[in-house]
Structure formats: structure tokens, C-alpha cells
Write a structure and sequence with these properties.
By secondary structure, this protein is α/β, with parallel strands linked by helices. The protein contains 14 helices and eight strands. The structure holds NADP nicotinamide-adenine-dinucleotide phosphate. Residues 13-18, 36-38, 41, 69-72, 75, 78-79, 96-97, 122, 125-126 line the site of NADP nicotinamide-adenine-dinucleotide phosphate. NADP nicotinamide-adenine-dinucleotide phosphate is lined by residues 13-18, 36-38, 41, 69-72, 75, 78-79, 96-97, 122, 125-126.
Amino acid sequence: MTEIARTPVTIVGLGSMGTALAEAYLNAGHPTTVWNRTPEKARALTERGATARTDIAAAVAASPLVIACLSNFDASALSLAPAAEALAGRTLVTLNSGTASGARELAAWADEHGIRYLGGAIKNVPSAVGKPDTLLYFGGERAVFDEYAAVLRVLGGEVVHLGAEPDLAALYEAAVGATLLPALLGFFEGAALLDARGLKAATMVPYAVKWFQMIESLLPVLAGEIDDRDYTRLGSSVNVFHEAIDSDREFAEAGIDIAWHEPIHELLRRAVAEGYGAQSITALIEVMRKQSTD
Ligand SMILES: NC(=O)c1ccc[n+]([C@@H]2O[C@H](COP(=O)([O-])OP(=O)(O)OC[C@H]3O[C@@H](n4cnc5c(N)ncnc54)[C@H](OP(=O)(O)O)[C@@H]3O)[C@@H](O)[C@H]2O)c1
């Protein structure tokens, strides 16, 4: 067993994700201590060799590295508060979803109590924990990340340090996650359109995949335009999307509720009215920026 494999780890929170984290450490041979508000959830893990504690302070005192994976930052703060003294000098990593402000508050609390803190996120589902292409990213002091990067790599092959600010993982979660629901809604309404003609959603999967691959290949180009604030370079203009508003009638005629398109159409109309029509579609970000400062 290597030095890394002997690092004891405490997992706080045994929901679907916390349980998968604990299983990964048990599989990798780490002494693993677990704590959960509802203690019964620890039973299967103790049968596999984990040590369960019902006292949170005793749980964190068992390991130099404590990984909390509760529903959100409020739940983490609430659960860890009685263990502040025991956590002093140890490293706390959070892997829950939540806001950047939630991460900053927890980081301030950790700092106040002499706790080394990394705010992290795992970008996959519980069944993917421990897989080579599973991505985790972290914000916080580089030296703390470097000390535990190998231990954290047990949870996924891609372990990234985003920077020194402890709220960066939560910030990137919000930024990257923003695409999820609009992309899924688009897929669902496309499936509804096919269904209205008696066609299966599965028939569009190969073409939808090609479409997403095209979007994937465009992202670096679009990001370059946004970063340079230069919207003069690409072929797809705001006008092209503005003129396509009418083609949405296809959905309305098939009886599909596409009310969620209206704010998007409004954004396009404003962009044209503000003189961005001939510029790249990325110019929409300027209209969004104005909305946020209006
Ligand atoms: N599951 C996923 O696919 C996935 C993927 C990536 C990220 N995540 C993130 O990982 C975090 C955990 O997800 P999960 O799927 O494991 O959730 P889950 O199955 O719903 O488990 C939630 C956990 O939080 C605990 N908890 C909630 N409120 C609490 C409170 N007030 N005090 C103490 N403990 C509390 C629960 O304890 P009890 O057992 O006592 O209720 C349980 O351990 C979430 O932030 C989620 O967004 C999940």
C-alpha cells in the first residue's frame, strides 16, 4: 500500500454522492470514517470496512482530510459547526453544489477557525466516481490542493486547481451549468415535434449528437470573440437568428408550448434595435451585460 493510499479520509454526508465517495476511498484502501445526519445510511459502508461516527467532532478528528458532500453550503455549515475545534489544522473539502457566496461564507468560517479549505465540485454522477475521465475542480490555496491532489484523484482522473479563491468551483458550476437546462429543453421540444408526427425521439439522437459536436467545436471561437469583445469575425450574425424567429411557428402549429422562447426572441429584437444585427451572435452578451447593469 502506498503512502497516499494510507491517508485517512472522513466523508461527511452519505447521500448518493457521499456514499459513492466513501466507496471509492474504501476501494482504494484508505482508512475511511463516515458521518451522516441519519446514521442508518452508514450501515452498508461499515460492513465494507468504514468506521461510522455519530459524533461529528469524532468523525473529523479521525482524518487529516475531511470531505463534506451534503445538499448545500447551509447544510455543511450547520453540520460542521459543532466540529470547528476538531477541524482546526485539518483540510476541509466541500463537494456540494451551491452559490459562490455560500462557498465564500464557508471559507470565511473555516479561516476563522484555522481550517484549511478547498471549495470543490464533482462534474459527474455518483456511478462515475473514481473513473479516469471524471472531472473534479477546486478553488483554494494552491499548497493545500497540491498536498491532497493525489488523494482527491481517487475520486476522478481529472483533478483541476482553478485558482486561489475558494468560491471558484461554485462560480464555474454556475457558469458551465447555465447551458444544461436550455440545451435539454431544446432537445425535449424537438422530441415533442417529432412525436407530433409519430416519430420516436431516438431517431433524432444521431443528428442531435452531430449538432452538439458542431457547437462543441465552435465554443473556443465564440469564447475568443467574447474575450476580445470583437463581434465582427463569425458567419452567424444576430440577424440570421432574428430572421429565424418565424420558423418557431412549426412548433406552435404542432401544439407545442414554446413560451420559453419569448424572452430569447425579445433579446434578439433588442440586439437588432441596438444596432448589433450585422454582428456575430456573440454580441448578444453585450445586451445581456446591459440588462444586468440597467
Ligand atoms: N447525485 C448527483 O448526481 C450529484 C452530482 C454532482 C454533484 N452533486 C451534489 O452533491 C451534493 C450531494 O448530492 P446527493 O446526490 O448525495 O444528495 P442526496 O442523496 O439528496 O443527499 C443529501 C445529503 O445531505 C444531507 N443533508 C441535507 N440537509 C441536511 C442538513 N440540514 N443537515 C445535515 N445533513 C443534511 C443528507 O442527510 P440525510 O441522509 O440525513 O438526509 C444527505 O447526506 C449536492 O450538492 C449535489 O448537488 C450530486
